[in-house]
Amino acid sequence: MSNAIEREFIRCQDVFFGYGKELVFDSFSHSFGQGITLIKGYSGCGKSTLLKLIAGYLLPQNGEVLLPRPWLKPSKKFQREALGFVFQQLNLLPLASLESNLSIVSSLAGLSPRDARERTGDLFGRLGLTGFSKRKPPDLSGGQQQRAAVARALVKNPIVLLLDEPTSGLDDANTTIIKDLLVSFLPRDCICIVSSHDHRMEEISDEIIDFNIRLPVEGPLHKMA
Amino acid sequence: MRSLTLIFVYLSKDLFTRWLETPGAVFARVLIAISLCLLFLFMSAGFSLTEQAMEKRIESFGVNTMIVRSVSSPPGQSRAEMAGLLGPLADQGLYFPFSMLYLNASLGSGEKARIVLYDDESLPALTTLLGSLSQIHEPVFLTAHGYPEAMIERVGIRDYFFDAEVLTPPKVLRFVSLNAPVLFIPRSMGGTLSGYTSQESVLFMAHEAGDLPGIIKASEELLESEGFDRYELNSPMQWIGELDDLRSVRIKAQALGGGFVALLIVLIFGSIAVFEYRQNIFVTALFKSFGLHSGHLALRYLVDSLLWLLLAFYCALELAKIFHLSLFKAVGFDLALLDLRAFDPYRFAGNQVLLFILLIAAVVSVIPVCLALRKPVGKVLG
């Protein structure tokens, strides 16, 4: 079954997940392709949970998440080498400078120090953080921290990039910087899934899934609501 | 490797920051660990010193020695004399029967001396026991520890005063008299003293120490069969048994004390580790989200505990050395035993059991954090 997954897809198959008695996904199935997929939806509809299930930060109670080869399933190695994730809230290590934050992630991914330096410099330049590389997160504004979090997620050149409300609370200028970066810097074969209720992100999306309307379901007809 | 170095540097920084932010938690852990280590060290040292004192007593008394004492038979009751009953022992070693009066003599120094009446037949044994008896000019003499040899001491018994020459007592006699001076008087010269209530006693030193257990058993049976229902038989053989008992008690006490120390350390260090983990839970989860194994993160807490426990262990060893003399002197141990140059119960090598207990406690105290680290990243980070 796993071998049949095409390289460029992440496939959720009959995923079942809930927090205690609160059911979030009941037999959810969907394939995410290369490019940017935007997941929209009301608060609590399961956008962040879906990203965490794909990342392997949560385990489905039933069903499975299949990743592109060679990963096939979420694992520590996948998280180290191929996954970039931006959380809604805390994203940066508070006692490390921005540069060190990126160094730790890039070294865990196996990047050489030279490559890591080059990519860090490039990302900081594009995100307007060049002068802040030695600063620690508590000394930065919310927008700067959020941009640094995106840089941290991108520094390892991820195959899968998951962004959970990356522009939440950001002004237009900061949002534009992040949008431009995603458009220009993201590798063509990267599968990027953005969870957001920010309409400004729709412009750069290749696919939009609106959980407000109906979850796209792949499965038996009788299970359709 | 580079990634681990960077993570190690970050976690060290995190640890150091935590210490600076919550010095109370650090001091509490160290002080409690030092106190517990000190308790354990003093308990072990107490046992060791007691054993040493007992060994010394056995050594000074002689492992082949036995002393039997009984109150002399009340008037009107006929009972064989102990000296006669145990007389055949003279063939198997030094046999010295005597009577110790329930009456003290007073010395010129103000000290009290026990009074021993001995028979003329006991002279050879007494000579062997005291060595320098042949140099004594009078049959009445005094043995007193700490007095100059051959000194003439004024002695008084009730209203009668006389001079007695001083001899240095052998260790076995010091033990029999509990270090008090003893006035030796031949029974033939005792006069009315023979009428006083006395303790019939026999000191016996076997030629072969191996024969003593059999001799003790036979003596006990003989005395009981002859109606000696209130007699006291002491021998280092019994002390050796007591020494073995003491050693087994020490092992049990160390196991129990060690368990107590370990339990308290696990509870205190474990609680503080969990508390700190909860404060740091987002950073820990962030590391996990990068793909770092929980084991690496648990190491931070293990290093934290180990560091403070090893420091506490070292401090406890040093503090124990400082308080050793005053503590055990107050308890009543002989000063000669308390010289740390002769016997140091606080050497690092001699306390590996405590170190092992601390290491185990450090590992166990991290288990709650290890369990907490299993919580999925997705349930911690928003």
Question: Any overview of this molecule?
Answer:
The complex is a heterodimer of chains A (225) and B (382). Chain A is an alpha/beta fold and 225 residues long. Chain A has a single domain (2-218), classed as Rossmann fold. Chain A has six helices and eight strands; from the N terminus they run E-E-E-H-E-H-E-H-H-H-E-H-E-E. Chain A has a five-stranded parallel beta sheet with strand order 5-6-7-3-8, sandwiched between helices. Chain A has a three-stranded antiparallel beta sheet with strand order 2-1-4, with helices on one face. In chain A, strand 1 and strand 2 form a beta hairpin. In chain A, helix 3 crosses helix 4 (113-126) and helix 3 runs parallel beside helix 5. Chain B is an alpha+beta fold. Helices cover 55% and strands 17% of the residues of chain B. Chain B contains 13 helices and nine strands. In chain B, strands 2-3-7-4-6-5 form a six-stranded mixed β-barrel. In chain B, a hairpin with a 4-residue loop joins strand 2 (93-107) and strand 3. The A-B interface holds A 48-49, 52-53, 55, 57-59, 76-81, 83, 85, 87-96, 100, 103-105, 107-108, 113, 164 and B 2-3, 6-7, 10, 13-14, 17, 282-283, 286-287, 289-293, 376-379, 381-382.
